[in-house]
Design a protein that fits this description.
Layout: H1 10-21, E1 27-36, E2 49-56, H2 63-88, E3 99-105, H3 117-125, E4 131-150, E5 155-173, E6 178-195, H4 208-227, E7 230-239, H5 244-254, H6 258-270, H7 276-292, H8 296-309, H9 314-331
Parallel strand pairs: 2-3, 2-4
Antiparallel strand pairs: 1-7, 4-5, 5-6
Helix pairs in contact: 1-9, 2-4, 5-6, 6-7, 7-8, 8-9
Length: 332
């Protein structure tokens, strides 16, 4: 069972709930992408990262050791490939060539000490890397369970495959000669099945190697979330009624022409005959236009202006969303 803890964006959720309780006629909703901060703070001053999978070969001639090493190796290779693919789509790594390589280690202990810097420099040398992201250790522990039982009509079978994941990552900054992040990832994945025939691994349930590969996929995906900011989808509203300029701005918003839309809302605000409530909504829209351009402080000023014209309840929640975005940007 995969357990992931995510930071809830309460203000966004409450904001959207309030919107659904309001009339849809006065506004439109748009989807935007915002940056979600990474869980670990690593340097952004790199240009050539390499991802390394540390693999233990096993004890030659010892069947159990070789089988375990094969399962761990499949998972580790998949983890670094998936990490590379996931990081490529994130803002910090986008457009960079992310190399991957394998390092064979000679011990199976889960108490892995950091690499000596001479080893790190050797891993980086082939690709002239300035950031080494290392999967230092990955152990996959498979266990199986099976039994039969009477379901009231006939004999039935239950079977399960459980894969325990224990992985440890480090990130080495070559420029600073410093370990900038380390991360222990532990999880348990369970596959189970009931049938009227005996439940078998590789038939009703995934095989050991297939399950190990999926464990590697999860390990790489989860670490990608930890070390790089990522894009997430959110929603915003803007008001569309009360003036011909408000209606005209809709087309500009739909075409992502925020400066043109803002010029229409400015005309509403500058009209001395406009109702204060409409001016407040136009100022609210100006806050959104500035958020879309990355001007968060100016967006907050426009919310203050909106409040001066008239009270609209969405201002309070939007202010908290913007303040949260400013906090997030400060962490990047």
């Amino acid at each position: 069972m995969l357990s992931i803890i995510k930071k809830p964006f309460y203000f966004v959720i409450i904001f959207l709930v309030l919107l659904t309780l309001s009339s849809c006629a006065e506004y439109k909703i748009i989807s935007i992408q915002t940056l979600k901060p990474s869980g670990l703070a690593i340097t952004s001053e790199f240009s050539n990262p390499v991802i390394v999978a540390s693999i233990y070969k096993g004890i030659e001639g010892v069947e159990e050791s070789m089988a375990q090493a094969a399962i761990d190796s499949i998972a580790a290779v998949e983890a670094v490939f998936v990490l590379s693919e996931n990081l490529f789509d994130t803002p910090w790594f986008q457009g960079l060539e992310i190399s991957t390589r394998i390092f064979f280690r000679d011990d199976a202990s889960q108490f892995i000490l950091p690499f000596p810097w001479k080893t790190v420099e050797g891993l980086a040398a082939e690709n002239n890397a300035d950031l080494v992201i290392s999967l230092e250790y990955l152990k996959i522990k498979p266990t199986t369970q099976s039994y039969s039982y009477w379901d009231g009509y006939m004999n039935k079978y239950y079977g399960s495959l459980t894969m325990g994941i224990y992985g440890f990552w480090r990130v080495y900054d070559l420029k600073k000669q410093k370990i900038v992040a380390d991360y222990l990832y532990k999880d348990t994945l369970i596959w189970d099945q009931t049938d009227y025939t005996r439940v078998r691994i590789g038939e009703h349930l995934p095989g050991f190697f297939s399950a190990a590969k999926y464990c590697g996929y999860i390990t790489g995906s989860e670490f990608a979330k930890q070390i790089a900011p990522s894009w997430m989808d959110e929603q915003r509203l803007y008001y569309i009624k009360g003036s011909k300029y408000m209606r005209k701005a809709v087309e500009f918003v739909q075409n992502n022409q925020w400066l043109d839309a803002a010029s229409q809302w400015q005309k509403v605000i500058q009209n001395p005959k406009i109702k204060p409530e409409i001016a407040a909504k136009a100022a609210f829209n100006m806050a959104l236009a500035n958020e879309m351009k990355g001007n968060f402080d100016i967006a907050l000023e426009w919310l203050n202006k909106s409040k001066e014209f008239s009270h609209i309840p969405e201002v309070t929640w939007y202010r908290r969303i913007l303040e949260l975005r400013i906090q997030v940007m400060d962490k990047l």
